Structures are given as structure tokens and as C-alpha cells.
Fold these 2 entries.
Entry 1:
Amino acid sequence: MDAWGIKFKNQEAIVVYMPDDTNKFEAMLYKKMPIVLEIEESVELTWSMTKFIKFLKIYENEVEDNKPITFYVRDTTGVRHCTKTKKTAGEIKRDNTN
């Protein structure tokens, strides 16, 4: 796997995620790209909710609040594998904003 990100309305955004050096837990979960996996292996990619909500607010014109968010990972052959959130972007922002 060489990249992951979010599908916007008319394009894709590769997420360049760097862990917060002061947060040891976040740094421990960080996976540097590319990630090499065998066929039967998997990996979990993490993104702190605070940084995710900040990302959604920055790109609010690219992410529709009334639709689920589509995440993708791109393998080294260029194929994208996608999954959608169960909640809409608006619900995620509402439920996780103070």
C-alpha cells in the first residue's frame, strides 16, 4: 500500500498524516508509507478524531455533509480499495465537535 485518503466531490485527497510527537500513543500507531503486506495480512490506519475533524473543516467545500465519507487505500499496482463511513460527514462533525 502506498497511499490512503478521502474521496472529495471531484477528486481525491491523499492524506499525509504525521503523528503528534508529544502524543506517544499516536506516534506508536503511526504507519509509514509504503506498507508491504502479504496477501493474508492486514493493517489498521489511524487518524486522531481531532485532526480528522480539522481536516473536514478545512475542506468543507469538498466534502458533502449529507453523504458518507469514502476512504480509500491505493495499492502499489495503482488499484484503489474503498470503504464508506456509516455516518454522514455532517453527523461525524456534529457528534465530535465541542
Entry 2:
Amino acid sequence: MSVKVNYTKQVREYCDRHSNSIIDIFIVRNSIFKDIPYKTLRKIFNRFEDEGIVHTVSKGLYCVGSKTVNKKIISQYTSSDGGMIVGYGLFNSISY
């Protein structure tokens, strides 16, 4: 008995459940989508971007739904001493 897995449907349902959130493809490929080959997962996200379901924030980092989540991204990656703001983000946050 073989089970046909529809990878696109699986990823689409995940995106539907996590609207207005950030998806780090490097994290979800090793946890949620272990059974999907990495290249296939990237192709699915590229198609979803063409459809407007997700938007690329950075390499391997996608936003589901809206394009404007800069504060959400910054807080997710800088909270709990997990990172820091550099470049234009740091420059623009400094007030004189």
C-alpha cells in the first residue's frame, strides 16, 4: 500500500494555519517538513511567492500574508539576546 503525499498541499495548509507569521525555511525543513526534500520545499515557497501567499524577507525567511512585518521580524530575531540590529536598521534607530 503506498501513500501519495502532496507536498504542496501540506505546505499550503501550514501557511494557512500560520497567516501573518514568519517562516524560517531552515528551521521548518528540519522539524515540520522533514519528509520534503529541501529543493522541493524551496520550489514550493517560490511558487507561493509568485501566487502572493508568502513574501521573501531574506534568504530562507518568508512572511505569510502581509508584506509589512518589520517590527515583528526584528522582535523575533532580537528577543532573548538572540541577535542584534546592524546596518541601516541600527542607523535609523539612533536618534540625535
